[in-house]
């Protein structure tokens, strides 16, 4: 059989674009990347054989613009398009446009995408196919009154979900009737922004359940099989954080039943290519259809690791019109695999997304790392905040956990704040180790606190900054260089961390220091890691410098500090405690207050959209709004003053 295509355009970015490019190149395909203005220097553009610049910063101006993607395919003479996940991967119109343009769409048919992408139609089709479904509301009438009636009939709590798309966007849990109206509005706005469709459905919330999904694969020769299940129960804001295969809660018999149901679901739409049927699994073994993702999943590596397969290779094979080459009896699970998603976010600040330049990224040894970033990459506010997927495989679940923890302990990511430490806490938790995680586990946990460095760690920070500054003078290079002078150094280093200032008096050098009353021995670094002697105790660390910001990783914590020794003092914002500032870069979509209005502490003031998520900004205090600088539709930067509140004076007791 003659190949239908020999060149592939990857209509995506980040780690999934890199992942697809690597397999395609191994198989001899010519690869074409597309890049927005925000991604002009991204890793995926370096890996591809050819890059087409499509301009724009926001997804709607670039990766979601079908005309630009199809034009890029024409300009590069690509013969096939792989959509990855997200963006246009589940857009039936785009799949159809590819077909009309004479391009091979590496995925299922437009008809299958269209049916499964409409959660209402999909549920009706699944019921007809004998797949168990959650009761709820999925009609075309989107009048709020219909949702109110359906929620009352189902009983609270209920879930409001975007009818198109997934990934937790456009999804809200509603526990009381009075919350439904605002949840519908927020979900519609988020769904429109993320998927270009504001349609919603409503489902009874099945709480304390597990999220278990089954990987399916079909070809054009009538074969449809399942490749086992993945447990994705550890979620935050309905987005998966840690996934594993197989599920610790699924027996061989239950695997057979869920697999058969998943195959019935795929067969109902004559499915071709990679797809995932998602279920909620109750403690009694009953399971309910959530949705079908008609694409490759973010967490597909854990399935690959336990099966020894390359799912992208299988996608390309099926897209060529070849038989899948596998039967159900060929599928054998070998060992256990766990994946942890590394996000650019601040767990101690409610997991707000974080942006900035990555000063150092070194994944731990022994892990499979799927990533779209490296040292020097810029994390922007325009796209999803996931930086990498870190995967471990073992002969048993216990071995996989042990390998993953060892690899995470050895991983360093400096620059934007990340959830690296939080991932280790989750994996070390008794709930996860015992295999009892649920979709509500993370939501029920106390938010982590941002730790403070010890005196010994502060001493090492002072010694490192002193050495670095002496080596390079007033300018800061990206890596640490050590000076060779034998003269004794005595200086005061002023640093700021988490809004707290520290004055460190440093004496000595170049490798032996006294910081306060703590002795520091600091041998030359090999690369950007080293071991220091702090008060007679050996302490390993990693280090990176970026302008006046210094990043250090200790076994117990990560620290980012700013050297403010020569910075002019700046007083607090004139608005004081009544200042409401932007917590991140993004776009203001709603402003709910006006000058002269009285507000209560915790009252919703604004909606800020960043990284495809909508974030509520609330009043930090009770008082009267004296100034509103915020305007709906405008872009703001982290730290921008949005609203000023005149604080009410406390009544004398």
From TrEMBL:
* Biotin carboxylation domain span: 4-447
Q: Does the keyword Transit peptide apply?
A: yes
Keywords tagged on the record: ATP-binding, Biotin, Ligase, Nucleotide-binding, Transit peptide
Q: Which GO terms describe its molecular function?
A: ATP binding; ligase activity; metal ion binding
**InterPro entries, sorted:** ATP-grasp, BC-like_N, Biotin_BS, Biotin_carboxylase_complex, Biotin_carboxylation_dom, Biotin_COase_C, Biotin_lipoyl, CPAse_ATP-bd
Q: Which residues form the ATP-grasp domain?
A: 123-320
Q: Which residues form the Lipoyl-binding domain?
A: 570-646
Cofactors? biotin
Name-wise, this protein is: Biotin/lipoyl-binding protein
What is the originating organism of this protein? Parvularcula maris
């Amino acid at each position: 059989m003659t190949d239908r295509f020999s060149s592939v355009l990857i209509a995506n970015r980040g780690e999934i674009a890199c992942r697809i490019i690597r397999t395609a190149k191994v198989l001899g395909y010519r690869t074409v990347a597309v890049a927005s203005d925000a991604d002009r220097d991204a890793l995926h553009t370096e890996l591809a054989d050819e890059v087409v610049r499509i301009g724009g910063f926001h997804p709607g101006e670039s990766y979601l613009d079908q005309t630009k993607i199809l034009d890029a395919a024409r300009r590069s003479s690509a013969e096939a398009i792989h959509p990855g996940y997200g963006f246009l991967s589940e857009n039936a119109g785009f799949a159809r446009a590819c077909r009309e343009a004479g391009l091979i769409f590496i995925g299922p048919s437009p008809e299958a995408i269209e049916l499964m992408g409409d959660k209402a139609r999909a549920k009706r089709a699944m019921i007809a196919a004998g797949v168990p479904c959650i009761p709820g509301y999925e009609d075309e009438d989107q009048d709020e009154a219909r949702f109110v009636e359906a929620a009352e009939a189902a009983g609270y709590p209920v879930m409001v979900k975007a009818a198109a798309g997934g990934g937790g966007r456009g999804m809200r849990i509603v526990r009381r009737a009075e919350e439904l109206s605002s949840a519908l509005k927020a979900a519609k706005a988020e769904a429109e922004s993320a998927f270009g469709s504001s349609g919603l459905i409503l489902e009874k919330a099945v709480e304390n359940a597990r999220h278990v999904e089954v990987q399916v694969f079909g070809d054009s020769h009538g074969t449809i099989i399942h490749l086992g299940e993945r447990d994705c129960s550890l979620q935050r804001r309905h987005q998966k954080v840690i996934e594993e295969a197989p599920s610790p809660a699924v027996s061989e018999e239950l695997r057979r039943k869920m697999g058969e149901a998943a195959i019935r679901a795929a067969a109902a739409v004559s499915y071709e290519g990679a797809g995932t049927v998602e279920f909620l699994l109750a403690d009694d073994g009953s399971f309910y259809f959530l949705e079908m993702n008609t694409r490759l999943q973010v967490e597909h590596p854990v399935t690959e690791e336990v099966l020894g397969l390359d799912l992208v290779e299988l996608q390309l094979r099926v897209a060529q019109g070849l038989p899948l080459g596998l039967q159900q009896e060929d599928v054998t699970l070998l060992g256990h695999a766990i994946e942890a998603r590394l996000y650019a976010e601040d767990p101690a600040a409610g997991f707000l997304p974080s942006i900035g330049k990555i000063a150092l990224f070194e994944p731990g040894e022994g892990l499979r790392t799927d990533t779209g970033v490296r040292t020097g990459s810029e994390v922007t506010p325009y796209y999803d905040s996931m930086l990498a997927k870190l995967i471990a495989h073992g002969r048993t679940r216990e071995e996989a956990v042990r390998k993953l923890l060892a690899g995470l302990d050895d991983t360093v990511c400096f620059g934007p704040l990340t959830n690296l430490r939080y991932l280790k806490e989750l994996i070390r938790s008794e709930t996860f180790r015992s295999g009892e995680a649920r979709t509500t586990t993370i939501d029920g946990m106390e938010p982590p606190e941002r730790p403070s460095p010890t005196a010994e760690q502060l001493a090492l920070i002072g010694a490192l900054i002193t050495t670095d500054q002496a080596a390079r003078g007033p300018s800061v290079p990206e890596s640490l260089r050590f000076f060779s002078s034998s003269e004794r150094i005595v200086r005061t280093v002023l640093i700021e961390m988490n809004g707290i200032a520290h004055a460190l008096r440093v004496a000595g050098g170049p490798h032996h220091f006294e910081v306060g009353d703590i002795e520091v021995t600091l041998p030359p670094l090999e690369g950007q890691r080293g071991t220091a002697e702090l008060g007679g105790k050996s302490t390993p660390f990693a280090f990176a410098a970026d302008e006046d910001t210094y990043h250090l990783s200790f076994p117990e914590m990560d620290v980012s500090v700013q050297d403010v020794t020569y910075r002019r003092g700046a007083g607090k914002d004139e608005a004081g405690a009544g200042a409401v500032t932007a917590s991140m870069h993004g776009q203001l979509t709603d402003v709910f207050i006006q000058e002269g209005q009285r507000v209560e502490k915790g009252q919703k003031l604004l909606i800020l959209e960043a990284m495809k998520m909508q974030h509520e900004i609330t009043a930090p205090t009770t008082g009267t709004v004296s100034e509103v600088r915020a305007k709906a539709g405008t872009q703001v930067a982290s730290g921008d003053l949005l609203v000023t509140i005149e604080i009410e004076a406390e009544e004398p007791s």
